[in-house]
């Protein structure tokens, strides 16, 4: 099951893991980190979000550096959109695009991220 992880990594640990992109294809707390997204820079380090999955089948190497303020968010399927009143081509395309993005995948996971200020208010300062 895909989840979103929010965490903070210190600047020293960031150098040793070769930047934010060095965190992908690693494992942390039995979760495989598939993709990473920069959120913000703080006094303590870098706040990032990551798409994670269970590491049982992937067998990624464990992350050697600690992460702080780690929280996971499970994404449930969204409610389907209301059918448009007008049947114009533009409104029907928009409706079908929304229908295809109801569940989180590796391709569309960033649209399910919390707003930046909401992430930072979870005690990253």
Give the uncertain stretches in residue-range form. none
Topology order in helix (H) and strand (E) letters? EHEEEEEHH
List how many beta strands DSSP finds: 6
Q: Rg from C-alpha positions?
A: 17 Å
Mean model confidence by pLDDT: 88
Question: How is this structure best described in words?
Answer:
By secondary structure, the chain is an alpha+beta fold. Helices cover 18% and strands 33% of the residues. A six-stranded mixed β-sheet has the order 5-2-3-4-1-6. The radius of gyration is 17 Å and the shape is elongated.
Topology:
Layout: E1 3-10, H1 11-16, E2 26-28, E3 31-41, E4 45-54, E5 61-62, E6 68-74, H2 89-100, H3 116-120
Parallel strand pairs: 2-5
Antiparallel strand pairs: 1-4, 1-6, 2-3, 3-4
